[in-house]
Amino acid sequence: MVMVNGEQETGVVGETILDFLKKREAPIENIVVEQNGKIIHRADFDTTKISENDKLELISFVGGG
Amino acid sequence: MQEPEIQGSSYNDVYQGMKERNVKDSTDKLAAAHVTIAGAGGLGSNIAIALTRIGVGHLTLIDFDSVELSNLNRQQFKLSQVGMPKVVALKQNLQEFNPFIEIKTHQVKITHDNVKELFEDADIICEAFDNPAAKAMLLDAASEFYPDKPIVMGTGMAGVHSSNTITTKHPRKNLYIAGDGVTMGAEGLMAPRVMIAAGHEANMITRLILGNTEI
């Protein structure tokens, strides 16, 4: 089971972080990804895969300041 | 030798007088702290003023942009400063509020490649960008180069929605994010609500300087 922002997500095991983010609505460049407590650097999005029992936190930013 | 004076009072009297209403035992810790503020717009200018007033001793201001008319509905610049680099105008204003602060400025665009150098001397990193991709880039780079430095950020302060939806969150060690998390700049950004988010960031930074890591 993979948890994304505290909710169960199915069918994502084996995907790269990049492929996983591409399916979501928010622009990829506005998101920071934490996998099992560790921030995955942007340069590693296309080589880091999602594994069974992963906990992902997506920290999204909106514009304005 | 005569003691230097500021507007007819001794340097020391002015310094002490300006700190009189600060919270007990805060002044020396604040004076020793170094905060580097990424962005000198609606968030950054308001955060910088708050930190300057309470006497945070060392500030670094970073912004590539110049003051525009459209900034004046929320950013702490004057009509007379339109066209000036934001970091130059802001430093000028801060020095009028409190002359006892060491202020460094960099008129440069922050990218992944210069984060290591620009934030080296910061005790606390303050993110105050407008652009969401820049916010994400800075968190990514800061977690790479300076995982042990606290970073205080802002996201979501647009429109005229309730003040009370703006909060400070602490999603992971050393990361603090103020804002409502959802309202986007395209809706319009105005001083009152931007200042609430800036106040959240400035107060969290103050708490961190004084040793409190809880939100």
UniProtKB/TrEMBL annotation, chain A:
Gene3D superfamilies to which the protein is assigned, alphabetical: 3.10.20.30
Top-level division of the source organism's lineage: Bacteria
InterPro entries listed in its UniProt record: Beta-grasp_dom_sf (IPR012675), Mopterin_synth/thiamin_S_b (IPR016155), Thi_S (IPR010035), ThiS/MoaD-like (IPR003749)
Signal peptide range in chain numbering: none
Pfam families associated with the record: ThiS (PF02597)
SUPFAM superfamilies linked: MoaD/ThiS (SSF54285)
CDD domains, per the entry: Ubl_ThiS
The protein, known as: Thiamine biosynthesis protein ThiS
Native organism: Lentilactobacillus parabuchneri DSM 5707 = NBRC 107865
TrEMBL record, chain B:
THIF-type NAD/FAD binding fold domain: residues covered: 24-212
Biological processes, Gene Ontology terms: cyclic threonylcarbamoyladenosine biosynthetic process
CDD domains the record matches: E1_ThiF_like
GO MF assignments: nucleotidyltransferase activity; tRNA threonylcarbamoyladenosine dehydratase; ubiquitin-like modifier activating enzyme activity
Transmembrane stretches, start-end: none
KW Transferase (keyword) present: yes
Keywords annotated in UniProt: Nucleotidyltransferase, Transferase
Name listed for the protein in its UniProt record: Putative adenylyltransferase/sulfurtransferase MoeZ
Gene name as annotated: thiF
